[in-house]
Amino acid sequence: MTPKIEFRGLSHRFELGAGDFAALDDVDLSIAEGEFVTVVGPSGCGKSTLMNAAAGLLTPTGGEVLVDGAAVHGPSPQRGVIFQQYALFPWMSVRKNVEFGLKIAGVGQAERRAKAQHFIDLVGLTDFADALPRTLSGGMKQRCAIARAYAVDPTVLLMDEPFGALDALTRVQLQDRLLDTWSRDRRTVMFITHDVDEAVYLANRVIVMAARPGRVHQVIDVGLPYPRSEEIRLSPEFAELRRQVWHAVYHQPTTLEGSP
Amino acid sequence: MSRSAKRPAKGSALLLTAGSGVLGLLVWTLLANSGIQGFPGPLSVVERFGTLVGDGTLPLDLLASLRRVLIGFVLGVVLAVPVGFLMGWYPAIRGLIEPWLQFFRMVPPLAIIPLAIVLLGIGETPKIFVIFLASFLSSVVSTFQGVVSVDNTLINAARVLGAKDRTVFTGVVIPASTPFILVGMRIGLGASWATVVAAELIAAQEGLGYRMQQAQLYYDLSTIFVQLIVIGLVGLLMDRALLLAERRLTGWQERR
Q1: Where are the transmembrane segments (chain B) (predicted)?
Q2: What confidence tens digit (pLDDT) does each residue in B77-126 have?
Q3: Which CATH number among 1.10.10.60, 1.10.3720.10, 3.40.50.720, 1.50.10.20 corresponds to the domain B64-204+233-249?
Q4: 8 Å CB contact of A152 and B162
Q5: I need a surface site. Which of A17, A194, B227, B230 has the fewest CB within 10 A?
Q6: Domains of chain A, start order
Q7: pLDDT digits (tens, 9 = 90+) for B187-199
Q8: Cβ pair B156:A105 closer than 8 A
Q9: Which pLDDT value is given to residue B8?
Q10: Does B31 contact A at CB distance below 8 Å?
């Protein structure tokens, strides 16, 4: 079966003042249809670069990304992206934000409105449909951004530290909502995070990356069953996985020398 | 509380403004009574104001000045907005235009007047031209700044939802740079107003600046005061009107 997302020999170098910098070096990675994969790693490991390449927002200097077997050239509504900074259009109401992608897709006004309403209700923003983003809390903004991404019905969700700026409680609530939706529609998710707990709690598989140059350091399978709950979060199995991931993230070889 | 950095409450702010007005009038009266030759007090200025309104001079002068400002200002903005957008969107166009823009920004519009009079005659054209220049220069720079500072994440968000260049431009770049354009318009209007009065001092047959220049010949300080007060008040009113439009159109901004 063709993987849903496949990174083939992906490399990316950024030009910096004092020479260039390898953000990614020869990354090979496959994500299967319906999988929930989290990518975790220290800053500078290129995890956001990896996601931007998959989103088509960045053209890698080497290698390629395939989605459903076709090379990615530029962004597409097939690949929904959730940004850490929410990226809501501040001059549009929640409703207008959610309708934005549908309008581009040429969906008629009545259908657009009904669809947008459905996703606004789904993320619990019914009472805020006509509110401007500046009046919403961080968690509500991200829920609006999620509704906006779902509205165009992407086959893949690419999430770049989406809950990174939220308080701990809101973060856990949004994690549970996301898993809830995912377990119903099994839409492939690639989720970038720097939070080890979050990485383990959400994923089928945790990809741990290393920095300088950015590369895949270790892949850890999470055998925990879904639905995940507080019980799982407090289980010894979770603690053990968390320890493994933590170790992989924070005890990395600092240079390339000596690594295989 | 008196040293608090907070703005005073609405009621006491109004009181302070009124108090400031009264204080100003008091200082003015004192100055008038201090024996400076021909220095008019508030009463004689009000009297002169009545005369100038009564014989139609002031309304006609005001109309002449406003007409010049509005024509020049509107022409300047109408050209500045598309040029600013082009500069922000296409780096090549920016590279070609920006050196000239930066150069002309350093030349006060008033310094162009002698040249404009020689080339365009002493009619309305040279005055409107310098006002146009003043409003164009301030609006074009801020429009361009607005386009350049549009948050890249917003552009990316639109693109991943399927937006092509055209939609990104009309749906994201234009609304996101509106606050900058409006700020530029406010600065441009202020600059236009300042320029028209000065332009009229040099060559005109009517207008607030011309009236002051005439009054100067006859040592008529009351008339000069009337013109100055009208210039200040009209400028203030125009600025407030644009500020109101700005609040209306860009109320979506996150204020910190």
Answers
A1: 69-91, 103-122, 128-148, 168-189, 217-238
A2: 999 999 999 999 899 999 999 999 989 889 888 888 888 888 988 788 99
A3: 1.10.3720.10
A4: yes
A5: A17
A6: 1-75+188-260 (3.40.50.300)
A7: 999 989 988 888 8
A8: no
A9: 62
A10: no
